[in-house]
Amino acid sequence: MMLEQTLSTLNHLKLFGMAKGLDDRLKIPAHADLAHDEFVGLLVQDEKSDRDNRRLARLLKNARLRQPDACLEAVDYKHPRGLQKQVFLELANPRWVPAGRNVLLTGPTGIGKSWLACALGNFAARQGFTVLSYRAPRLFEELQQSRADGSRLKFLARLAKAQILIIDDILLTPFADQERADFLEIVEDRHARAATVLTSQLPTKSWHAAMNEPTIADALCDRLFHHAFKIELRGESMRKADDKRKS
Q1: Minimal CA–CA distance to 185: which of 148, 149, 150, 219?
Q2: Residue 194 has what DSSP assignment?
Q3: Which are the contacts of 72, defined by CB distance < 8 A and separation ≥ 6?
Q4: pLDDT value at residue 246
Q5: How do beta strands 229-232 and 195-200 pair?
Q6: Which segments of the chain have a pLDDT < 50?
Q7: Where in the chain is the domain with CATH 3.40.50.300?
Q8: What is the CATH number of domain 64-246?
């Protein structure tokens, strides 16, 4: 009866990891010989592990990664696409996130840009950072919707607050006037304060012209390119190469 009351109290206090740990560990004969402080220490560790796991699940859910299983440990360095392992070894150190360094991934379709961006987002979430991920067309659609319903400032604040913002397929088409203005707001809010990961089929040298307005393009490129990781991929589509191997 006392055990049931204790478990009920732990769950009521939202100490779910400790409650489960207590129930599980009492069934392990070897734990009966532990000193009180050792047993309590294990329960505290159970609670911490449970909270860490739930926080990670929440961060990954909120990130909305298109490929949530992508991870840095599974990056393919063998496919000939100009991917330098040393760069990703540097990105495997999370210091670039609080430093607000951007990652610019460019290259042809099918070369793995989106997967690599998701791998960086997955890595950041596992380090405890908040992550948001959007395809550029959907992002601008949601911004347009937010103007219509009066939530634009709130939406922009949410984008600015994310410690990593991933925008996939930027500049698939030249910016419309409002998209260019919105993008400048996003970049300005995050400059030197939060990391942004961008993927594009256009090489970075073509971004200025694609932005269609020299003055704003100057401001955007200056903020995006400064101290950024520029990863230019090239070569055959990985999807085509995979199809050839299977045929």
Answers
A1: 219
A2: S
A3: 88, 91, 92, 119, 120, 122, 123
A4: 44
A5: unpaired
A6: 243-247
A7: 64-246
A8: 3.40.50.300
